[in-house]
Specification:
By secondary structure, this protein is an alpha/beta fold. It contains 12 helices and 14 strands. It folds into 2 domains: 194 residues, Rossmann fold; 103 residues, UDP-galactose 4-epimerase, domain 1 (Alpha-Beta Complex). Strands 5-4-1-6-7-8-12 form a 7-stranded parallel β-sheet, sandwiched between helices. The protein has a 3-stranded mixed β-sheet with strand order 9-11-13. Strands 2-3 form a two-stranded antiparallel ribbon. Helix 1 crosses helix 7, helix 4 runs parallel beside helix 5 and helix 6 runs parallel beside helix 8. The longest helix has 20 residues. The protein binds nicotinamide-adenine-dinucleotide. Nicotinamide-adenine-dinucleotide binds next to helix 1, helix 4, strand 7 and strand 9.
Length: 327
Amino acid sequence: MHITILGGGGFLGRKLAERLARDGAVGGHPVASLTLFDLAVPPALPAPFPVRCLGGDVTSAAALAEAIPPETNAVVHLAAVVSAAAEADLDLGLKVNVQGTLAVLNACRALPKPPRVIFTSSVASFGGGQHANLADEARQVPGNSYGAQKAIGELLLQDATRRGLMDAISIRLPTVVVRPGRPNKAASSFFSGILREPLLGLETECPVGDDFRVWVCSPRRAVEWFLQMLVMDTLPLGYDRGVNPPGLCVTVGEMLAALEAVGGPAARALVKRVPDPAVEAIVAGWPASFTAERARQLGFSPHESLEQVVRAFVADDLAATKAERGL
Ligand SMILES: NC(=O)c1ccc[n+]([C@@H]2O[C@H](COP(=O)([O-])OP(=O)(O)OC[C@H]3O[C@@H](n4cnc5c(N)ncnc54)[C@H](O)[C@@H]3O)[C@@H](O)[C@H]2O)c1
């Protein structure tokens, strides 16, 4: 398989690339080559197959033509402006999240064989709020520009699939915890922050109360789902190419209990309560739970426990995060 990851220098892109490099194959299909594309040239990746690392803008047809060569079998489109940044800058969100996805569609149209395309949509493309438990048929009524731009991207790729130009699957990712490195511009950044920062020995602020509910998944699970989507039979999807994967509905209190189970009471004591109505207004609009029945029927792997998620962060990312931040 010749695979291109757009946004391949970001959090999930890097995780997926490292997993492909480790396994050398997806579902029994050897990886023939990998292209990592991002605004800045992604760092080199040792792998048992050739890896190209390219810098460029996802809205540029010329850059995409280089990133998605004729032999491409699969494109994982992760390049995006994330939630709070897209809300703060409508023009930037429209450019990257809408025009960028349109440019990806056009680049895929030019290929001799329709590629598998994986698009990362988001829980933020739905409304519903804290008490929602959304069924698979729930309508996407986003309460923020980022979610609207993701929903637009889904429709564009669904129609391109109907037309036989590609074979797309859009996964509405939950909030991914624990994100390594530094806090980012996503409104959901604190959900990772309240686990990561105390495990680094740092104080952090939590803008919402203990009973606040959130739909999450781990980076390990997100990568597993990407691998499944790269090779799954898409016939059962029909025209409906959006999937709500089986994440975890957890409360902030449960997250702090998992933190304490792994890092002890001293870690939990580093989480300070500082209400932030602007952040809460964004994240409280996202649905806190999904039934995710269809994804289970399609074979999307079930989620591990919250404590396992925290332990996986310690095993996979704590040392690198400490090194990156000079701790
Ligand atoms: N991490 C989450 O909690 C989460 C939740 C739901 C959906 N998603 C979606 O999953 C995808 C990956 O998320 P992530 O957490 O790895 O994000 P990330 O910000 O770490 O990675 C996205 C990458 O896209 C790149 N990018 C931005 N604008 C670009 C442009 N104009 N041209 C080329 N590259 C550009 C960024 O440089 C970045 O490396 C995104 O599409 C995001 O919207 C993530």
